[in-house]
Specification:
single chain; 12% strand; seven-stranded mixed beta sheet; 7 helices
């Protein structure tokens, strides 16, 4: 009858509804995810405070184990064939604004055999070939004018800095060369402050830095007003900054930054801003430099020398 048909349909719909509810509950249970706690939600990022303290305690929100350069967060750096490391990172990304790990006794913790020697810092050292080659040449053929030095490379890409560090033993340069994974604009002052307890900065090189071509990305460039101010603070009279690039715009930007924000402390070896050094004053080319010169392309270079002016510690650095 019609009534029986209607009742049957009602029962079928009710049964189907119950079945769907049961299925939904089972699927929810099977694929449910535990609440995810953001890895960055409990951190405190401050380039003015935490970047100047050593391994900030967990009480203020800084967890060194979350650092992209912490050993436990590193991955294997074995390379196969012609595989390449990642070429670019955003230095303003939150994880790269964290202070790097630095031992309380550094550099007098065995990192350098003699931490009292002048230090050559290569900012943006890449895989470290330049410093390793330079240190080897200076060990085999000492430069009397330059004197004996220690060598330190700073590299922001975690896998690349790890790879560079692993090469030190292979080159038999332990105690002479070291590499630190860090953001130079966050950690340089802390590094120089600790090294100044024992020795001093002999030379700083910034070679072929990431160009960050886009106008909106140029704020990511490594040579900032604050970096210049930090170098002026820790470099003594006569010590030098060597900059070079095969990209004229990038070089001119670095040069203008040092001239504008370090005009009271650094003297450009070439007064005419439209002229450049013909030869590499260090005498050892980077891998990038070899490639550029092999293509008969230009390289733009100059050297800035620290003068005798005392740093105005109280001055505020504009443009940071």
């Amino acid at each position: 009858s019609r009534r029986t048909y209607i009742n049957t349909m009602k029962y079928q719909r009710a049964a189907l509804s119950i079945a769907m509810q049961i299925l939904s509950a089972r699927l929810t249970s099977a694929f449910s995810l535990a609440p995810v706690t953001s890895r960055v939600s409990t951190r405190i990022f401050s380039t003015t405070d935490e970047s100047k303290v050593e391994n900030a305690p967990s009480g203020n929100g800084y967890d060194s184990s979350k650092s992209p350069w912490a050993p436990e967060n590193q991955v294997e750096t074995k390379k196969k064939g012609n595989s390449r490391f990642r070429q670019h990172v955003n230095p303003l990304a939150r994880k790269f604004m964290m202070p790097t790990e630095l031992g309380s006794e550094w550099p007098n913790d065995g990192t350098f055999t003699n931490p009292k020697l002048p230090l050559h810092i290569d900012i943006g050292c890449g895989k470290g070939g330049f410093l390793l080659t330079l240190a080897t040449e200076r060990v085999e053929t000492p430069n009397k004018e330059e004197g004996e030095r220690n060598y330190l490379g700073l590299e922001i890409r975690p896998s690349v800095s790890k790879y560079a560090k692993e090469r030190v033993d292979k080159w038999n340069l332990s105690g002479k060369v070291d590499f630190i994974g860090c953001n130079a604009n966050v950690d340089l002052e802390r590094i120089l402050e600790k090294y100044a307890i024992y020795g001093e900065v002999g030379l700083v090189s910034v070679q072929y830095p990431d160009p960050h071509f886009k106008k909106s990305h140029q704020k990511r460039r490594v040579l900032t007003p604050q970096l210049v101010h930090t170098l002026a603070k820790y470099m003594k009279e006569g010590r030098e900054i060597f900059i070079q690039s095969d990209i004229k715009d990038v070089f001119d930007n670095m040069r203008e930054t040092v001239r504008e924000f370090g005009d009271e402390y650094f003297i450009d070896a070439i007064s005419d801003i439209g002229e450049y050094m013909d030869e590499n004053p260090v005498g050892v080319p980077t891998e990038r430099e070899v490639s550029v010169l092999d293509q008969d392309l230009p390289v733009y270079r100059t050297v800035f020398t620290r003068n005798s002016n005392d740093l105005k510690v109280e001055e505020k650095v504009e443009g940071v």
